[in-house]
Structures are given as structure tokens and as C-alpha cells.
Specification:
With about 180 residues, the chain is mostly beta strands. The chain has helices spanning about 55-65, 75-85, 95, 155-160; strands at about 1-5, 20-25, 30-35, 40, 45-50, 65-70, 100, 110, 115-130, 130-145, 165, 170-175, 180.
Length: about 180
């Protein structure tokens, strides 16, 4: 069962700064995915992530004005390597990895149904930093699997088995007390 919320309440699903998958729509409406381990909450409604200006994720964010942050659990670590591979712009990493699209609550960009939670953002602005841009998004809505929501409305990182990047660029992730190889 999925629990949906609108507005800044969805930001509680990102409270632990886990590894995230950003989904965007490509020009043929396919679902693009990129894996990110370094990002930050900027306010109660905004996050920012450094995105390569040469990436499909960057181009899609600029073109569509939206993106979705998906929070994978430990069961998806092997898929993260597939999602991180560079594919031609109109090919979908999500389809290649055999993952399921979940329809958006707002906007046009789907999320990944196998994830523990997802938060939809409207792209608001960017700050250029070398070959990257710090892409800032404003929270619109989100969903979480009911069994992973704690009493405070946040994601329960232990039940969801939320992973964090451990040794970038190697595909190593950790859980409390564990290191997983993707």
C-alpha cells in the first residue's frame, strides 16, 4: 500500500540523505534514471543536487522543469549499477533494469514503484559549478510504502533498508552495520 501526501510533508521521506535515484522524462517520454549519493536539503521544501551538465538527467530537468527523487532499499543495490550506466538519451535505464514505473501524483514524471519512497519536485533554479550545476527543486508531492513510514511521518531507515553511498565511484553502499556491493 502506498501513502501519498502533497506539499512539504513529503520532505520527511528524505530526512536521512540516502542514496537516491533521480528520474526524469526524456524527449520520447521514456523514463531516464541517474543514481546520486551527494545531495542536500536546502529548506523545508527544497533540495539540491550536483548534476553533470553533460548528462541526460540535466538536459531533461531543464527541458521538463521537473524531476522525481526515488529512495531505493537494499533490495535494489544490484539495479543501481544498471541505472548509473550511460545510455543513449532516448533509452530508458528503468526499462533496462526491469523496474516498474509508478504514475506521478503531480506533473508528468513517473517514479520507480520498487523504491521505498519517492518525492516529486519542480525544478526551480541552478547554480553553475564547473562541469556540474547545482540543481534545486521545490517539493510538490510524494509517496511512501505504508510499512516504511514511522510515527513522525518520516521514512524508517531500518525497515526500508535505506542505503547510502560508501565508496564512490565504486558501487558500494552501506546499511547500519553492513556494506553491500551493487
Amino acid at each position: 500500500m502506498f501513502e501519498e501526501v502533497t506539499g512539504s510533508a513529503a520532505m520527511a521521506f528524505l530526512a536521512t540523505r540516502p542514496t537516491m535515484i533521480i528520474t526524469t522524462q526524456n524527449e520520447s517520454l521514456g523514463l531516464n534514471a541517474g543514481v546520486f549519493g551527494s545531495w542536500t536539503n536546502l529548506s523545508l521544501r527544497e533540495i539540491g543536487a550536483a548534476v553533470s551538465t553533460q548528462s541526460d538527467t540535466y538536459a531533461n530537468m531543464r527541458r521538463t522543469g521537473e524531476f522525481v527523487v526515488n529512495i531505493p532499499g537494499a533490495g535494489l543495490v544490484e539495479k543501481l549499477a544498471l541505472l548509473a550506466e550511460a545510455l543513449p538519451p532516448l533509452e530508458s535505464e528503468v526499462e533496462r533494469a526491469g523496474l516498474t514505473q509508478r504514475p506521478p501524483i503531480t506533473g508528468q514524471t513517473p517514479s520507480i514503484a520498487e523504491c521505498a519512497a519517492a518525492v516529486e519536485f519542480a525544478f526551480s533554479r541552478e547554480v553553475e559549478v564547473g562541469h556540474h550545476s547545482f540543481m534545486i527543486g521545490r517539493c510538490r508531492a510524494g509517496w511512501i510504502r505504508g510499512e516504511f513510514r514511522d510515527n513522525d511521518g518520516r521514512i524508517d531507515i531500518f525497515k526500508a533498508k535505506v542505503v547510502r553511498s560508501f565508496k564512490y565511484p565504486l558501487p558500494l553502499y552501506h546499511l547500519p552495520g553492513e556494506v553491500l556491493e551493487g
